[in-house]
Design a protein that fits this description.
alpha/beta; Rossmann fold; 5-stranded parallel sheet; 3-stranded antiparallel sheet; globular; binds cytidine-5'-diphosphate
Length: about 230
Amino acid sequence: MSANQNTPFTPPVIAIDGPSASGKGTITQLVAAQLGYHYLDSGALYRIVALAAKNNNISWNNEALLAELVEQLDIKFSDNEIYLNNNKVTEKVRSEEIGGGASEVAIHPALRKALVDLQHSFRQAPGLVADGRDMATVIFPDAKLKIFLTATAEVRADRRYKQLAAKNKSADYQKILEDLRQRDTRDQQRSDAPLVQAPDALLLETSNSNIAEAVAFVINAYLANAKSN
Ligand code: CDP
């Protein structure tokens, strides 16, 4: 029997971290689809907690109750939809208000800890592409490829503005830019799992490139990496 037959298969992970509105979600989903891998939108978990807390009148500051609440949530992702306790909440969790709430609940170590096993459970064959803030640093430190995806705050605010306008939602560019900067600061300065580029992550700056170029960069880096191992 060869050594390989004795070693359990650990599905590979591509970790894609970066600030708000950097295009992580879109790029991660396209990379996952191209490779036939699973996809984890870890930000959605923090958004779901913020929404559930709001529905249950639990303050986004109440660390102990938030961590308890997580244990009671039934979260499902299916066909691009998000379900909380069997109710479709896709649109609700994507709101700017809940995005802000997500970054408030995300500062609490007890809550982050309560979400670790759930995130690990997405690591399934043939592989996983995971997006968030701490995929490379905390949740999947052994990821085969780590990408830190970013763009200037102005470019990101402009992208978010256009996304909202395309959905016919009222949007104020200056307010979006301000919220985004506030969220960046909160995500970068928290003590537990702050938003930071892992030392072994590749930097992908997308201010002057499009989605297709970013996807090609990740896939090429991954395939080059696989060849050299
Ligand atoms: O869509 P956007 O990039 O604005 O946000 P998101 O990825 O949905 O994440 C929402 C919030 O959850 C972020 O501002 C972070 O504070 C938090 N988050 C986190 O702390 N850790 C993660 N792995 C993912 C998100």
